[in-house]
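Support case: KG4 complex. Customer-provided input:
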Amino acid sequence: MRVLGIETSCDETGIAIYDGEKGLLSHVLYSQIAIHADYGGVVPELASRDHIRKTLPLIKQALQEAGVSADSIDGVAYTAGPGLSGALLVGASIGRSLAMAWGKPALAVHHMEGHLLAPMLEANPPQFPFIALLVSGGHTQLVRVDGIGQYQLLGESVDDAAGEAFDKTAKLMGLEYPGGPLLAKLATQGDAKKYKFPRPMTDRPGLDFSFSGLKTAASNVIAAEGNSPEVQADIAASFQQAVVDTLVFKCQRALNETGLKRLIVAGGVSANTSLREQLQQLLSKMKGEVFYPRKEFCTDNGAMIAFAGYQRLNAGQQQDLSIGVTPRWPM
Ligand code: KG4
Ligand code: ZN
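Agent response - structure generated as follows:
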């Protein structure tokens, strides 16, 4: 079975073709960062309009790069939520309509299920069951995964997501949108022990997170010490270490509580080098294994949607003819 995947939930248009026997045949990605940069964040209306411009040409490009014709596509998977409703509707309308025109099944995919399964696109994919740490701009979740569709939420952020905390703190420091990766880069030049940031909710039981206090801590430092490049680097390093310590602490607790030894990490923040290194150290110490997507599949992409859609279409699931999206969709 060969599936076309379409991702348009936020500010990336991602298209991919996944083949059950041959694996990923092609994936193309267009980022709207330049369009939103002047506004300091994603402007939903501009995002929708740009997805309209880009989705069909990128589908043609993905087919061309895969060297396959539209006739050979057996199903179409599109992200139906969570995300920006207008942006989601572009992918859903195009995906559902193409599937109908081609006489093939369509499937609405949950964006976070896409992220969660992304490490399975790599060589040496994780076996079920495992713990998934999902860390993106919109979500911070720990999930027990026993199989495709068998997900138990163990804990999540009660306020800001980890990526959101990176972005908001970066904005306070005057860094450009999207600030997370820029802050991570600055952190390599700073002293992580310079400022004492809290490790929120590590002093109480449970697997929930809270990251909104970290940006307040950062703004207090800026108010007291200014925003010089040296202060910025030290804030970045101290902030990043606080987020990483907190995520590592909760992952260890989730693994201990469930007795599992396999961890997958996915979502935009899983591209963070410091987080990857420190989780690697944790799992080595625990004699377990940690799995990541390749860096380009940590952030939003079409490959993860094609893959998740393939798994579900192959299991016989499919969508009716209606075109709907679910901007707030629990997994
Ligand atoms: O998964 P994603 O592309 O979109 C959502 O579904 O939210 O994640 C984007 C988030 C942003 O908050 C971005 O700042 C963050 O991931 N991010 C990073 C890094 N790369 C992306 N945060 C920290 N370090 C990075 N290297
Ligand atoms: Zn995402």
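The first strand starts at residue 2 and ends at 7.

Case will auto-close in a few days if no follow-up is received.
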